[in-house]
Design goal:
The chain is α/β, with parallel strands linked by helices. It has ten helices and 31 strands. Strands 12, 13, 14, 15, 16, 21, 22, 23, 24, 29, 30 and 31 form a twelve-stranded mixed beta sheet that branches. Strands 1-2-3-4-5-6-7-8-9 form a nine-stranded parallel beta sheet.
Length: 616
């Protein structure tokens, strides 16, 4: 570790720089004297980092902290390995690790799903890692390594791959799967030991340049065309004279690491178990029977809700990760999108999310007089009654509506009135879109035409208002208006309590909840297994080993699984697994009204979503 903070690091932090370049002999000397300055990894604003042509031999695990990184250049150093935390740079689009001494790339590279370009040329790499999830890759360069095969790249997973360079390796064969690279424009495989080309090469629709010089072709005519670098002539000849290439495919007997003996088939039970692992997204339903009594949450519904808002569905999602990348913002955006679309501007249903650690159970869904209902609205610090809150929202929105109607200037920018800068839920309450205000605080009035009130009308002339309270009778949500600030979620939230309420239909509540959980899967909010004290989780007959006993819950991990009777591990991505605990809705006499998720919930059309339900 560096003895002193480097001047470049201090300047970059002071000036909030997005780019930092460290290169050459002077940097190399400082690395030799005291190592790379670790303070570089605290520069969270960086989106471009270059450390090149130095004596750097390793990169700290702390590089995973640079969550805004888009371009990472580590060429021309002496790196012999890359840290697994590299997989946490989820915004990364370009990775250049050329000219080092790498023999392998970490399997966590498969987490870089936004990666568009990777240059790992001039290393010692002998085998490609799994890159099936890198479906945005456009440029790949593995030239000057020790590869004998690049078969993993011949897949329809790489629909955007246009430049594939793997010259100066020891590649022996090009399989017939190459025709799956429909966007391929350049293929450079010169200086390998390829003896023939598959006929499928001629079916690559966009291939304009292919380089095969200095290989060991048996066909003299083909060898001559290759030396002349005539791509069109090569492709025409291969279409007519090429050998039908070998196409590889997964089978029931060997899939994702589950290898069985020759002629054996997976049992139906094993097929179900392995299906849970092969799918990209998995929801594990945690049944109440398996939960400790202290973790069980029942929501008691009073008879008063039947008058105003009779339907509610709840669940708990445990061990989520809202700290990684933009997860927190994406989760909030997903709720907003659902409110606008499926919830019909909150007129059909309303979502509320709470940090479970901030809620005292039991939870009650009730309806009480507006003058009695008191809440600290989301984003506020002062408590007020529901009567005052709704009255204020109506007044503010009506004033804005009148002010906007007085403006008769069409298609002209005018200064934005103060009332434009209302809280977001004022606009939502009226069903309005926030008007377009540019950087000069000017508003285009044509872009904003206030409509009549939307979901505030649901409370009009009502003697009771719905609310959800905790054990202290504190109101934690006031649907459809707002949540309480006392239970709001944050990036540090690990267990989230979700409620969906409706005045019209129970099915819409379930549909909204199903959709929100699917969105959480897409955002990759999953964390570690539900029991932090155990590092083994079971799916059927398969043990899933978590990274280590001391791992922080909610941290993104990809871990190993072992199927009984098989020593070969399989990668398991916790980020796309949700642990959803069932929640019962009961009446005041303890009679069950709703259990979610039940066996009829979480029905998804997508084949890549698998729900692991309790057997009984």
């Amino acid at each position: 570790m560096a003895a002193n903070v480097w001047e470049e690091t201090v300047r970059a932090k002071k000036e909030n720089r997005r780019e930092l370049v460290l290169s050459g002999n002077q940097i190399s000397s400082r690395i030799d004297d005291g190592g790379l300055d670790d303070n570089i990894f605290n520069l969270k604003m960086l989106n471009f980092l270059e450390i090149s042509n130095t004596s750097l031999t390793f990169i700290s695990e702390k590089i995973g902290l640079l969550s805004s990184m888009v371009n990472l250049v580590l060429r021309g150093n002496k790196l012999d390995r890359l840290p697994p935390s590299l997989g946490q740079l989820h915004m990364l689009k370009l990775l250049d690790v050329s000219g080092n001494s790498l023999s392998v790339l970490p399997f966590e590279i498969n987490e870089l799903t936004n990666l568009q370009s990777i240059d790992a040329s001039n290393n010692l790499i002998y085998e490609l890692p799994d890159m099936k999830r890198l479906n945005k890759l456009a440029v790949v360069n593995f030239a000057g390594n020790k590869l004998k095969s690049i078969e993993p790249l011949f897949s329809n997973c790489f629909a955007h791959l246009s430049d594939l360079i793997a010259s100066a390796n020891a590649i022996e064969l090009i399989s017939g799967n190459i025709d799956q690279l429909e966007a391929l424009k350049k293929l450079d495989l010169h200086e390998n030991v390829i003896s023939e080309l598959p006929v499928e090469l001629g079916s690559c629709p966009k291939l304009k340049e292919c380089l095969f010089q200095n290989n060991k072709f048996k066909d003299r005519r083909l060898d001559k065309l290759v030396k002349q670098c005539k791509t069109k002539a090569i492709l025409d000849y291969v279409r007519a004279n090429g050998k039908k290439g070998t196409k590889t495919r997964s089978t029931d007997n060997e899939e994702d690491g589950f290898k069985l003996g020759k002629g054996k088939k997976l049992s139906k039970k094993r097929e179900k178990e392995t299906a849970l692992l092969k799918t990209e997204k998995n929801i594990k339903v945690l049944p109440l029977a398996d939960c400790p009594t202290s973790n069980i949450i029942d929501v008691v519904v009073t008879k008063h809700t039947a008058i105003i808002r009779p339907y509610i569905v709840c669940c708990v999602v445990r061990n989520i990760d809202l700290e990684r990348g933009s997860n927190f913002k994406q989760f909030l955006a997903a709720q907003t999108k659902l409110h606008d679309a499926l919830c019909a501007k909150r007129t059909k249903a309303t979502i509320a999310t709470h940090d479970l650690a901030l809620i005292k159970t039991p939870v009650k869904f009730d309806a009480i007089p507006p003058a009695v209902l008191k809440i600290i609205p989301l984003g506020k610090q002062k408590e007020e009654t529901a009567l005052t809150l709704v009255s204020r929202l109506n007044k503010e929105a009506d004033e804005l509506q009148k002010k906007m109607k007085r403006s008769s200037v069409s298609g002209v920018h005018k200064p934005a009135p103060e009332s434009v800068r209302l809280s977001d839920f004022v606009f939502a309450a009226k069903g309005w879109s926030r008007p377009t205000v540019d950087e000069t605080n000017m508003i285009l009035y044509d872009s904003f035409i206030p409509e009549s009130p939307i979901y505030l009308d649901l409370l009009k002339d009502k003697q009771l208002y719905p609310c959800v309270t905790n054990a202290d009778d504190q109101v934690i949500s006031f649907p459809p208006i707002t949540n309480s600030d006392i239970s709001k979620i944050s990036p540090q939230t690990k267990d989230v309590f979700i409620e969906v309420t409706s005045s019209t239909d129970l099915n819409i509540c379930k549909q909204v909840m199903d959709t929100l959980l699917k969105a959480m899967l897409d955002i990759k909010m999953g964390g570690l297994p539900t029991n932090q004290h155990e590092n083994i989780m079971k799916i059927g007959n398969i043990d899933i080993q978590s990274p280590d006993d001391g791992a922080t819950c909610g941290t993104p991990h990809q871990v190993d699984m072992t199927c009984h009777g098989n020593d070969e591990p399989v990668a398991f991505d916790w980020q796309q697994r949700l642990n959803v605990q069932q929640v019962k809705i009961v009446d005041t006499d303890g009679n069950l009204k709703v259990l979610y998720p039940s066996r009829v919930d979480l029905k998804y059309d997508e084949q890549d979503v698998c729900v692991d339900r309790p057997m009984s």
